[in-house]
Amino acid sequence: MPPPRVELRAVSKTYHDEGQPVEVLHQVSLAAEAGIVTALLGRSGCGKTTLLNLAGAMDFPSSGEVLIDGRSTASLDDGELTALRRRRVGFVFQFFQLLPTLSVLENVELPLLLARAPKARETARDRLRWVGLEEKAASLPYQLSGGQMQRVAIARALVHSPDVLIADEPTGNLDTASGDQVLALIHESAVRFGATVLMATHSAEAAAIAGVRVHLRDGRIQSIERA
Amino acid sequence: MRLFGTLILRPLRRDLLRTALTILAVALGVAVIVAIDLAGDAATGSFRSSMQTLAGKTDLEIRANGGIDERWMAPLTALPFDLHFSPVMEAQGTIRDIGSVPVYGMDLLGQDGVVVSKALATRLNSAGPVTLNLDGRPQTFPIARTIDVANAEFLALDIAAAQQALSRYGKLDRIDVTVSAEENFARVEEAIRELLPPGYLIEKPGARSDENQRMLRAFRWNLRVLSYISLVVGAFLIYNTISVSIVRRRAEIGILRAMGASRVLILTLFLTEALLFGIAGAALGVALGRVLASGTVQLISGTVNALWATSRPTPIELTLPEWTVALLTGVAVALASAFAPACEAMRVAPTEAMSRGAHEHHGRLRWRRGLVWSGVLAALALAACQAAPLGGYPVGGYVSALLCVASAALAAPALVLAVNHATRAVVARRVESLLAGRSLVASLSRTSVVVGALATAIAMMASVGIMVGSFRETVALWLDVQLRADLYVAAAAPAGAGVHPALPPQVPAILAGIPGVEAIDLFHALEFRFRGERTTLGAGNLEIVRRHGRLRFLGGEDRDAILRSLPGQDRAVITEPFANKFSVRVGDRLAIPLGGLNVTLTIAGIYYDYSSSQGLLIVDRSTLLKYLPDQPVTNIAVYLPPGADSNAVQRQIQLRTAGLGVVTAPNRQLRALSMQVFDRTFSITWALEAVAILVAMLGAANSLLALVLDRRREMGLLRYLGASTAQIRGMILTEAAFLGLFAAILGVALGFALSLLLILVVNKQSFGWTIQFHPPWMLLGAALLLVWCVTVLAGLYPARVAARLNAIGLAVE
User: Fold this and answer.
1) Among B15, B241, B493, B806, which is most buried by a count of CB atoms within 10 Å?
2) Cα A134 from Cα B809, distance rounded (Å)
3) DSSP secondary structure string, B75-107?
4) Given B442, B713, B809, which is nearest A101 (Cβ)?
5) Spatial distance between the Cα atoms of B8 and B75, rounded to a whole number of angstroms
6) B723 chain-A contacts, CB cut-off 8 A
7) Closest partner residue to B808 among A53, A86, A91, by Cβ?
8) Using 50, 70 and 90 to split pLDDT, how confident is the model at B273?
9) What is d(CA B60, CA B391) in angstroms, rounded to the nearest whole number?
10) C-beta atoms of B717 and A99 within 8 A
11) How many Cβ atoms are within 10 Å of B772's Cβ, its own excluded?
12) In chain A, whose CA is at the least distance from the CA of B807?
């Protein structure tokens, strides 16, 4: 069995709110494997987004450690973290977060441009084709529907073929049909591209595509179930 | 009030740096206005000499062009009224290690020695005789007594001693008349007028001071207008700050409206925010202005003394009315610039909680309308600049300049879009520039305001730069035409505007006898009164000027024919400023009071001249001596044959005139000195420009900071997508560079338009001279590059803030 690509070892995270410590995650240990969608389930405020930020190396634990391919994210400097996000991690957000001033194609291309990767335009077009929106390449985000925007966001998250896809409520803002399309793409990204997918969700449909379902409550893992 | 606290004060406190930058910008704008006003008042505040203070109350003053014959004292005192007449002479002398001091001649009842003011006596630090250079030679006087007159420094001699010391026997500068309270003042005045020759002037005390103030009107007015530039630039900044404030709180405004807040309440809230900026900025500005005034007073005073009249700077006084005016100015500008955005806030519909994107999208759609209005205002500007001066002020020119600025500001959105479109291929090559360019277009209305502010500052800099550069080049070319002699000789006494020290009478003969001298042109300059203004009457050997000089006449008239027509005739040539100031044309006949006579002179020609905005009237010296035979020579131009050694001749002159108090300057030295005076005159202009640029920089930094804070979510997202901190920084700096580029393009275009206004309208109407268009390309290029670099530097702090933003949560808000 290959080692987990993303691993959280006894991770706790505490924030300070007006001087008072607030523990958002408590002693969480979790391993997410390649090619599998791991769904994080739980009520709002249970720590799903914090866990995703830790797993995507956007944040660091107060105690414990987060390992990506066996390397602790806390040991990486700013340059290494940037390189990690450029090459290894992709993000999908609930509210799509497309840049309104860039065209659809430019939005998808953006991570490659930031990484100064070659053939950015061709790769971005490939990804757009994959999500079925090639004909919208020149459109601006406000000209798309919510479902289309989220598909563009997935194309953007996967444009650099990341090993880890972090998705925070990817269908939370979509109707059922659009949500299904998006979930199909997320599932395919794990199966086809072998990405390790960590997805926070409230939706039963989204949880249904997951190979592993992690139930969180008040910052603690309540249960882990495998499909 | 609670609403004001929540909606306005709390965000201001949260954004303390931006709040401070806006207040500082207003403060600088107000400070410059206060400084120029206070320094101007102090520098020109007292044309009343200490002699007038010393002499006490005077009811009338008698003057004459070329001096008063003292023999008129006897018939005056014989008039059957209870009057007191005081003969007066005024001159400047120099005391070693102390410098120039006023020397007065007055009726001291034949007292021997000199009366010294207490302030001067303290500086002399000795009770022994005082030696001063007067009338071109050192003269020693015992100190008779000291007198305390309001800290003034002067020396006073008995009138006879003064006439002797100044070699002006039988002449008086003025007679002061005191009329007894019992006398009928009108009858006294009439009697004196009837007694004296028609060329003598009888006026109320203070007329001269008023005259000086009138003479300086255009200078002070232009300086004052220039001082408002920073506040205009600051107005853009307030507009921007209030706009940002509204854009950010659009949703809150929508909710408030839905909950029953009236439109007037919303308008009042945002106008009160502007009022806060205005009050705080103006209060700080007044204090800052008072400090700046101290540094400015000498600059203004130097210019006034060099170009117009001798003034004695008075202490800087910040009075309650000045305080009030400054405060009201700051507040009015703040309210006026906030009015449009506040009205926009008032119009937010109750159900509306539009995002910035939608608001900005509408802004983008308005650029065509802006462009049309820009064209309309440009056409109005063109019409306004054709207007004749109003009460001597170039009001049309300034209205036109304001319209030009407004026109450029309205054209800014179209320009931003056009430049963005033109550079899109280049910009797309780097992700930082791609994002920067798109972001600026996305917040078009805000970008346009910053570009407008920066462009205004750049335009002011460019226009004044072009005007001063053109003026400088014109003056340099004119000096080349004007200064044709090899050497110039003048009295060593301190000269200034309206002060023409006489050369010792033996000097012309000495110079004429020096081997190698081909010709000498004896020149007489004297201040004279014409139509209530002071100007200069000059007389020289115009045949020599014709042979050696290259005077350029307006309309390309025949120089030789004009100059040949003057000797021995009652004909004169005048300078362009004289012609413009007094609306005189060739062929006009002017009645000029000379000595006791009113002489009618026919104007033979008008020539280009840049030595005095008050103008010059030139006659041949044969004409002058016909009416004022004792008028002393004040300057001599020495012409040498081609190839002559001017240094050797200069040494000869120095040798033969040693001890006579004469200075000799070669042609190049005089030119250099003239250019020095020119540069000093405009040094304050540059200082004002620098402040305007500084305010614009604050605006750029402030706006970039607002853009960064408003786009925190975007910055966070970019970090999630793999942007490095260097890339975020690069993006903001590129935005700053773009802002600088947009502003430079608009600013230079506007600057050229304004420079034409300054040269063809404002200067022409204020000072009366024709300036040839000579843009100082190198200087402009360097200044633009500097401003552009500083704009990029203004982006450094916002870039730092952007790079340090914590991405966590920003992207998922």
Assistant:
1) B241
2) 30
3) HHHTSSS-EEEEEEEEEEEEETTTEEEEEEEE-
4) B442
5) 78
6) 82, 114
7) A53
8) confident
9) 28
10) yes
11) 13
12) A58
Residues for chain B: how many in total?
A: 813
Residue range B553-602, pLDDT digits in tens: 988 788 899 999 999 899 999 999 899 888 899 999 999 888 778 899 99
DSSP label of B496:
B
Per DSSP, chain A holds a count of helices (H) and strands (E) of: 7, 10
CATH code of the region A33-46+75-226: 3.40.50.300
Residues B197, B658: contact at Cβ < 8 Å? no
Interface with chain B: mutation pick from A44, A84, A101, A140, highest number of B CBs within 10 Å: A101
Cβ pair B722:A97 closer than 8 A? no
Rounded distance between C-alpha atoms, residue B331 and residue B27, angstroms: 11
Give the residue from A113, A169, A199 with the most B CB atoms within 10 Å of its CB, the best one to mutate: A113
Residue with tokens 């004002």: B688
Model pTM score: 0.74
Pull the structure tokens for residue A102: 């860039």
Is A101 close to B807, i.e. CB distance below 8 A?
Answer: no
Q: What is the CA radius of gyration of chain A?
A: 17
Nearest Cα neighbor of B217 from B666, B534, B675, B673 is B534
Considering only CB atoms, which chain A residues are within 8 Å of B722?
82, 85-86, 111, 114-115, 160
- Please state, in angstroms and rounded to a whole number, the distance separating the CA atoms of residues B701 and B696: 9
Handedness of CA A78, A80, A83, A85 (dihedral sign): negative
Instruction: Give the ipTM.
Output: 0.89
Nearest to A59 among B431, B725, B808 (CB): B808
The span from the first CA to the last CA of chain B, in angstroms, equals 30
Inter-chain residue contact A113 with B719, CB threshold 8 Å: no
Contact list in A for residue B441 (CB cut-off 8 A) is: 101
For B8-58, the pLDDT digits (tens) are: 777 777 778 878 888 888 888 888 888 888 887 776 655 555 555 565 677
Residue type, A97: Q
Q: Which residues pair with B603 in a beta bridge?
A: B572
Question: Rounded to 5 degrees, what angle do the CA atoms B773, B791, B17 make?
Answer: 135
CB contact under 8 A, A49 and B812: yes
CB atoms B725 and A86 under 8 Å: no
Q: Minimal CA–CA distance to A68: which of A77, A78, A81?
A: A81
Among B97, B106, B167, smallest CA distance to B132 is for: B97
Alpha helix (H) residue ranges in chain A: 48-55, 78-87, 104-114, 120-130, 146-158, 176-193, 204-208
Question: How far is A216 from A41, CA to CA, in rounded Å?
Answer: 6
Contact, B171 vs B67, CB < 8 A?
Answer: yes
Residues of B within an 8 Å Cβ radius of A: 357, 361, 431, 434-435, 438-439, 441-442, 713-714, 717-725, 727, 807-809, 811-812
Out of B357, B438, B722, whose CB is closest to A114?
A: B722
- CB neighbourhood size of B656 (10 A): 15
